[in-house]
């Protein structure tokens, strides 16, 4: 039992030994504390730099959005102007086409009236020829009958 007790006693450090060990550890702990403070300062600086980069990227994006919005507005204005110009051309083309259709319709009506007049004249001539042929036939028939009867 004494041997076991002796091992336990040897494992216990004296106050002076602890002070010696602490004297070695203190500078390391202080250096570690300084390193942590420096790391925190570096991290804070990096966070600030990153925040500035993010803010700059947001400003750049906002400027790009504004530029794109301006381009879209300009494109819409150009499209509207093009639509108006096209509408004017279509209206002018419609007016010109309507005028041509009206002239063609008028010419067709005039031609139709002339043809109707000519056909009426021809029909009158044909009717006159029918009366003439009928009259000649009757006169000839009358001469033939008079001849048969000996009157001529």
Give the strand tally: 0
Broad structural category: mainly alpha
Q: What's the total helix number? A: 2
Shape: rod-shaped
Q: Rg, please? A: 62 Å
Explain what the structure shows.
It is a single chain. The chain is mainly α. The chain is built from 2 helices and no strands. 0% of the residues are buried. The model has no long low-confidence stretch (mean pLDDT 88).
Please summarize what this structure is.
Helices cover 95% and strands 0% of the residues.
Q: What would the keywords be for this entry?
A:
single chain, 152 residues, mainly alpha, 2 helices, 0% strand, rod-shaped
SSE arrangement:
Elements (H helix, E strand, L loop, with lengths): L1 H10 L3 H134 L4
């Amino acid at each position: 039992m004494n041997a076991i007790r002796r091992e336990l006693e040897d494992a216990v450090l004296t106050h002076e030994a602890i002070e010696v060990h602490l004297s070695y550890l203190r500078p390391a702990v202080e250096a570690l504390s300084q390193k942590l403070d420096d790391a925190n300062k570096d991290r804070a600086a990096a966070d600030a730099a990153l925040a500035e980069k993010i803010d700059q990227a947001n400003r750049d994006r906002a400027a790009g959005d504004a530029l794109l919005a301006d381009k879209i507005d300009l494109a819409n204005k150009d499209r509207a102007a093009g639509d108006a110009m096209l509408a004017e051309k279509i209206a002018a083309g419609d007016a010109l086409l309507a005028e041509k259709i009206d002239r063609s319709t008028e010419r067709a009506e005039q031609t139709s009236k002339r043809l109707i007049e000519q056909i009426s004249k021809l029909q009158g001539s044909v009717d006159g020829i029918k009366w003439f042929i009928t009259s000649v036939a009757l006169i000839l028939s009358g001469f033939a009958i008079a001849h048969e009867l000996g009157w001529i």
